[in-house]
Amino acid sequence: MRDENQEPQNNGGRPDYQNYYPYQNYYGPDGKPKKKKHTGLLVILVLLALISGAASWAVNVLGLRVDVGQNSIALTMGEKHTATEQQSPPGLQAAPEVQPAQEPEQSQSVEEMTEQAVQESSGLELRDSPQSVENVPAEEDALSLQEIYAKAIPSVASISCVLPNGTSSGTGIVMSEDGYVITNYHVIDSAQQIYVTLENNDQYVAALVGGDETTDLAVLKVDAVNLTPAEFGNSDVLRVGDMVVAIGDPLGAELRGTMTDGIVSAINRDLNLSGRQMTLIQTNAALNSGNSGGPLINCYGQVIGINTMKMSSYSSTSSTVEGLGFAIPITAAKPIIDELIEKGYVSGRPAIGIQGETLDLRAQLFFHMPSGVMITGILQDSDAAQKGLEKDDIIVAMDDSAITSLDDLVRAKNDLTAGDTVRLTIYRSGNYYYVDVTLMDQISPEIY
User: What count of Cα atoms within 13 Å lies in the side-chain half-sphere of residue 385?
Assistant: First the structure.
């Protein structure tokens, strides 16, 4: 390897620069310096010529003109003639040349203009408004929206419940002067304490008279007299397009007595909810959580439906659904309500005759038990008790349906009627057993 600091060797009195490392690219084979090439400079000159030619072409072809003013440069395209050289088309008169606006002799500051505007302003001016126009439907004897609200609001109640793990709220309808109140079953489901607050803020502790999960109806009773009952109409005569309003407590008691209006969007709408088939009135009147159990009212101030759900609450999609509310027709609810008041339950609803709960996952893992419904209580006059079912037995199947939760059990038995016989698969002390049980009437919502 050649040393870069090595001196060049003498070659006949002349340094051997050809083989001397620092200069090996500078001298040619004859020992003379190489000629420099100016390729880069030529490329730059060619580019400058092209740019200059392009600018000249733009000026000549596109008609660009550069106006240099005192403080600015304006670039105008396509003006090859002055204004005096332009010709007006036949029949059209040339518009006068627009003179630039002259600057004011002395401009005001922003602060001065703001102060002047404040001095000149006399404040927000309010004018007297006439009384609001009555919203009267076209039907004869129909009420305005204001009259509907005034008629119905004394019969609308707020429902609040204490649950084992929290609280719930909804709306109710005063049915009678002596304290019967109608609401949805899912509003009071599993409630340990139920409170009813009337429109005049009177509050009562309510007792559950009866409830029916299948139709989502419940009847409460408060110890009160001289209440204002609602007027109930005939939902069978409804037509699509009829005007309706809903009154209730959307999102809770903070918004008590909210009224929304809309129309009947559809009638006899069949929906399947948690295994229950329901025929409902569809409306676009705004319904939200808390409206459940409240009245859907026609243009005469009559309750023709009991609001039960909004589609977005049960939709499997994450998108919000608006304008799809549903109510139980009052003509379909009447026989259920009457039977709940008379018996406390609806005849023919099937039940095994037990109380139960879904077996907790931690208990399954700790005690090495299967998933299912653990029996926490049993009616002594039921066929299940006669067939030997006991507390702490775990129901894991009903006929061919696997039971992993209480919802599975309810869904399976709701397809049957009282008097039907089912085969239950029971887990007890590490063993499985088959038991044939005849279903009974569900005399209470807490009995399964």
Answer: 11
CATH assignment of the domain containing 198 = 2.40.10.10
Q: What is the enclosing helix (H) or strand (E) of 406?
A: helix 406-413
Question: Do 335 and 354 share a structural domain?
Answer: no
- The pair of structure tokens assigned to 39 is 């390729």
Question: What 8-state DSSP symbol labels residue 143?
Answer: P
Q: How far apart are CA 19 and CA 4, in angstroms?
A: 11
Q: How, if at all, do strands 203-212 and 14-15 pair?
A: unpaired
Q: What is the DSSP letter of 33?
A: B
User: If DSSP codes are grouped into helix, strand and coil, which group holds residue 366?
Assistant: helix
> What are the residue numbers of the active site?
186, 216, 292
Selection from 264, 276, 271, 272 nearest residue 236 by Cα:
264
What residues does 351 pair with on adjacent strands?
Answer: 440
Taking the alpha carbons of 9, 11, 15, 17 in that order, is the dihedral positive or negative? negative
**Which domain covers residue 250, as residue numbers?**
235-342
Distance CA(202)–CA(216), nearest Å, equals 26
Q: Buried b / exposed e across 227-256, counting CB within 10 Å, b at 16+?
A: bebbebbebeebeeebbbbbbbbbebeeeb
- Judged on CB neighbours under 10 Å (0-12, 13-18, 19+), 55 is exposed
Does 180 score more than 80 pLDDT?
yes
pTM for the model stands at 0.64
Rounded Cα distance, 263 and 269, in Å: 15
Please give the tally of structural domains in the chain: 3
Is 14 a member of any domain?
Answer: no
User: Residue 262 in 3-state DSSP?
Assistant: strand
Residues 4, 10: Cα–Cα separation, whole Å: 16
C-beta of residue 268 within 8 angstroms of C-beta of residue 308: no
At 36-92, the pLDDT tens digits run 555 666 667 777 777 766 666 655 555 544 444 444 434 444 444 444 444 544 444
